[in-house]
Amino acid sequence: MPELPEVETVRRGLAPAMEGVVIARAQVNRPDLRWPFPENMAQRLTGARVERLRRRSKYILADLSTGETLLIHLGMSGRMLVSGDPLGQFVHEHPAPEKHDHVVFDMDNGARITFNDPRRFGAMDLLDTATAEQHPLLAKLGPEPLGNAFNESHLVGQVKPRAMPIKSALLDQKIVSGLGNIYVCEALYRGRIHPARRSNKISEARIAALVPIIREVLEQAIEAGGSSLKDFRQADGELGYFQHSFDVYGREGAPCRTPGCTDEIKRIVQSGRSTFYCPNCQR
DNA sequence: ATAACATCCTGAGAGC
DNA sequence: TGCTCTCAGGATGTTA
């Protein structure tokens, strides 16, 4: 479900309730998500203070006072919801436990963080903070699209030699990390590039032009609190609203929004996943 | 090395 | 009401 903007939205929602706060109790309701939880996860989290909540690509990283870092991935359907009263200003009842509430943190400021994930494609792990980037899930990730290492020369250098469709290249987390199906479709529309176009057949200038476009799409989506299709919620339970700004994603058969274009949005399947684009505007 | 495909899992919605 | 079928924001692992 969540791509970079949704994960960043969740991180921002969790931060006020978790940063600098001790995990008073960790409740783990099943042995695994996508993979088994680490050994003694609940015990290793209990009593730890969350020093900082970071994000790397689509992962949330909670640096703990114990020298370990909790890695959280939301998979396709994961949510993290804050309930209770972190600031001590109101009395909030915690909601009744729901199906698929797999992990619950009770913070010592009164906040409760509930991780709910029906499909269980999500993950949690504990790693040494000092060597966190060497974790198998993080080690091979490409640069952050909103960081300085993601620039024109990087993207051209990574994309230009490849024969794969440009959509596949942008989805490859080793080339740039954090994009998913929605934002790749939206970025290619803005860049006027056909998603099935072979990467090595695109001029360097057009590849380079994707850099500011990708940044812009992601920043606008973060600004809107992410995109809510079926299950995405911000940490306070609110919907994101960037889905109202989609130009192509989920708009099969709807008119293209480019001024003067009378064509309609098409859907194709690329390596098993839906791609939306305008056949007139994107070449 | 590359790319297509199946796979993990549940739920929502469409069609009958 | 209920059955079957398709599809879904991710990412790994297997196959050709």
UniProtKB/TrEMBL annotation:
Binding site for DNA: 100, 119, 162
Keyword Lyase: yes
Cofactors that this protein relies on: Zn(2+)
Alphabetical keyword list: DNA damage, DNA repair, DNA-binding, Glycosidase, Hydrolase, Lyase, Metal-binding, Multifunctional enzyme, Zinc, Zinc-finger
Reaction equations catalysed: 2'-deoxyribonucleotide-(2'-deoxyribose 5'-phosphate)-2'-deoxyribonucleotide-DNA = a 3'-end 2'-deoxyribonucleotide-(2,3-dehydro-2,3-deoxyribose 5'-phosphate)-DNA + a 5'-end 5'-phospho-2'-deoxyribonucleoside-DNA + H(+); Hydrolysis of DNA containing ring-opened 7-methylguanine residues, releasing 2,6-diamino-4-hydroxy-5-(N-methyl)formamidopyrimidine
GO biological process: base-excision repair
Top-rank taxon: Bacteria
Residue ranges occupied by any FPG-type domain in the UniProt entry: 247-283
Pfam families named among the record's database cross-references: Fapy_DNA_glyco, H2TH, zf-FPG_IleRS
Active-site positions on this chain: 2-3, 58, 273
Residue ranges annotated for the Formamidopyrimidine-DNA glycosylase catalytic domain, each copy included: 2-122
SUPFAM superfamilies, sorted: Glucocorticoid receptor-like (DNA-binding domain), N-terminal domain of MutM-like DNA repair proteins, S13-like H2TH domain
NCBIfam families: fpg (TIGR00577), PRK01103.1 (NF002211)
Function: Involved in base excision repair of DNA damaged by oxidation or by mutagenic agents. Acts as DNA glycosylase that recognizes and removes damaged bases. Has a preference for oxidized purines, such as 7,8-dihydro-8-oxoguanine (8-oxoG). Has AP (apurinic/apyrimidinic) lyase activity and introduces nicks in the DNA strand. Cleaves the DNA backbone by beta-delta elimination to generate a single-strand break at the site of the removed base with both 3'- and 5'-phosphates.
Subunit structure, as described in the record: Monomer.
Name of this protein: Formamidopyrimidine-DNA glycosylase
Organism listed in the record: Tropicibacter naphthalenivorans
Gene that produces this protein: mutM
